[in-house]
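In this notebook, the sequence line spells out the residues, with the fold written below as integer tokens. This is how one looks.
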Amino acid sequence: MKIGIVGRPQVGKTTVFNTLAESNAEIGGYTTRGQVNLSTAHIPDERLEKLSEILPSEKMTPATIDYVDVAGVTKSDVEQAELDSGTLAALRTVDALAHVVRLFEDASVPHVDGSVDAARDIQSVSLEFAFADLQIVEGRLTRLRKQYQSQKLPEQQSEIRLLEVCQQTLEEGKPLRLLNLSANEEKLIRGYGFLTQKPLLLVCNISETQLEAAEDILEDFREYEATPQTAVIVLAAQLEMELSQLDTADAEVFMEELGLRESALERFIQTSYQLLGLLTFFTINATESRAWTLPKGQTAVDAAGRIHTDFANAFIRSETINWSDLIACNSYPEARNRGLLRSEGKTYQVQEGDVLLILANPTN
């Protein structure tokens, strides 16, 4: 899973990046065009740790998230309808966008537009991404129409019609995630990496003094969730970055004093998984205990393919058990004795927290 962190300058984008990625990227005045911060973060998961305790392995490998932090979208970007190629290239490949929106007031960090206005900033970035997508659509339409005049291929006509719908949507200032596309239509335009088609997580960045009002602030932004594939969370990025730099014991004490039930990282991950329709499954053996990410609705064969393509091609069955049942049994033999270890075939849809033992024919 790869998430791009976007927003206006001076909104706390890179502070959020540092919190999530446990990084130390430079903050303050970070608006260099084309500059990109990249980091891979391990996803903390107590389930994996507990499984590793009862079934010791040589190593434990958590699931990961790749974070991409790009320069802030400036007023000139919006007015000229042009993001730099480096920023676009970095964002086209991500699975979702996390748009950091500034709600905090700080005289020492003036807003680039002179005032804090979340609705204005959301609209500015949304329009910029719509302009960027529109340029791709118009360029592709021009080429396709010329090709269709001489070749008359049905697939060209289908793509032209779909791109014309995309063009109209974008010209109206609307994101492509509003479109209800079929699986075939999704496939037709998947390679373009349209920014406004990507799932969007609005990250409302508040100050520590606004923590008590966090729930009210969240409710104020719920209207954005009416748009498909859009979610909202509220966090105090500066505070969360400071928490992330403490050891676990000190961080827990500090969070308790502040009345925080969970860290921003936990909330961000949970919401991201929900937004992208992902789940976690586990594989446990003497060599490695590992957490894997898989889209909801995919099968045991798909899970086998995530582990290794040979496992999918030679799949026989999967011995499957929920992680909590395996913990309760304390071993695979006891799980078999209790009838909790199930044999599942190719069509089995993997569930959140499944532990899978893939059985496959040996390769030649």
Observations:
- The first strand starts at residue 2 and ends at 6.
- Residues 2-274 form a domain with the Rossmann fold fold (CATH 3.40.50.300).
- The chain has a mean pLDDT of 88.
- DSSP finds 15 helices and twelve strands in the chain.
